[in-house]
Design goal:
Number of strands: 10
Distance between the termini: 13 Å
Helix content: 25-40%
Order of helices and strands: EEEHHEEEEHEHEHE
Strand order of the largest sheet: 5-3-4-6-7-8-10-9
CATH class: Alpha Beta
Structural class: alpha+beta
Shape: globular
Oligomer: single chain
Strand content: 25-35%
CATH topology: Aminopeptidase
């Protein structure tokens, strides 16, 4: 499969002479990525500051097995994307995204740290999130989940790049509407999604959150413009 070129703009370096390309390459996950992905997801959703951190090894085990199952069975209309570090390349526009999980290191030069995942996201089709009653008639739309970035690589644009690639996946499936959930107390994530054009669809009703004060989930929706293209 021919890799896509990222829609992210180039950033000039401190000299102002030549552009510096994106630091990451996004591709489909491979079975051998499972351990690395489990680490990234566990550290992101169950950090050391969490009261449940002592359960992290058990969470990691469950995450690892679920990922292994999904990558082995390859459900229809499901994509697990990973971001890997790559060297900065000056003056040459290189592909930044491919759905070809068999892409080898020799085809897309990576950093000396290897082809280790430092970020991930998943997208699949689920019953229409905006109107749960329609799920009985089989209406399904792209839903984004499990967006996570390894702590040393955060705030460097990889989350935005992963979400941009999800939009391209949705377009290849023939969809322009995307949905995702975010906790109402996750201000950093809300700021990112708002920046990328996601809007609040609704605040999910949650009796448990109401009774014990847990943060509620906000359903966000983005409709890609008619002129959006691969």
């Amino acid at each position: 499969m021919v890799p896509f070129t990222s829609g992210l703009s180039e950033e000039p370096d401190s000299t102002g002479i030549a552009p510096v390309q994106c630091r990451y390459f996004v591709r489909a996950a491979r079975p051998q990525d499972v351990d690395g992905l489990a680490d990234v997801l566990t550290d992101s959703f169950h950090p050391s500051t969490s009261a449940w951190y002592w359960m992290a090894p058990f969470f990691r085990m469950g995450i690892r097995e679920e990922l292994r199952t999904r990558l082995r069975t390859q459900p229809a209309h499901h994509a697990c994307l990973v971001g890997v570090k790559r060297p900065e390349v000056r003056g040459v526009v290189e592909p930044q995204f491919s759905l070809d999980s068999g892409l080898q290191t020799r085809d897309m030069p990576l950093s000396a740290s290897g082809d280790r995942p430092v970020g991930t996201v998943e997208i699949d089709l689920r019953p229409q999130a905006g109107n749960p009653w329609l799920k009985f008639w089989g209406a399904r739309y792209p839903y984004i989940s499990n967006l996570a970035v390894d702590e040393p690589h955060r705030r460097q644009g990889i989350a935005e790049q992963l979400l941009s690639c999800c939009e391209r996946v949705a377009l290849t499936w023939g969809y322009r509407d995307l949905y995702l959930h975010v906790l109402e107390n996750n201000s950093a994530a809300i700021s990112l999604y708002t920046k990328l054009g996601y809007q609040t669809q609704r605040i999910e009703p949650d009796l448990t959150a109401l009774l014990i004060g847990n943060p509620r989930q906000i359903l966000l929706h983005k409709c890609l413009p008619p002129n959006a293209s691969l």
